Amino acid sequence: MTDKKEKVYAYVSTILLIGSFCSAGFLILGLGMFFLQTHPHNHLQDLIRPCFSNIFSNLLRGKPTAIVNLGILLMVLTPLLRVVVAVFSFLAERDFRYATIAFGVMLILLFTIVANLF
Amino acid sequence: MSDFFFMIVGGILAGLLGSVLGLGGGVLIIPMLTLVFGVPMREAIGASLVCVIATSSGAASLYVKKRLTDIRLGMTLELATTLGAVVGGVIAGIMRPQILSILFSSLLAYTAWTMLRRKPDGSRGDETRTASNFDNRDGSYNITHLPLGMGASFFAGNISGLLGVGGGIIKVPVMYLLMRVPLKTAVATSNFMIGVTASAGAFVYFSRGEIHPLVAGSTMLGVFFGATLGSRLLPKIKAEYLKKAFVFVLLYLSLEMLFKGLGLHLLF
Question: What is the ipTM of this complex?
Answer without folding.
Answer: 0.83
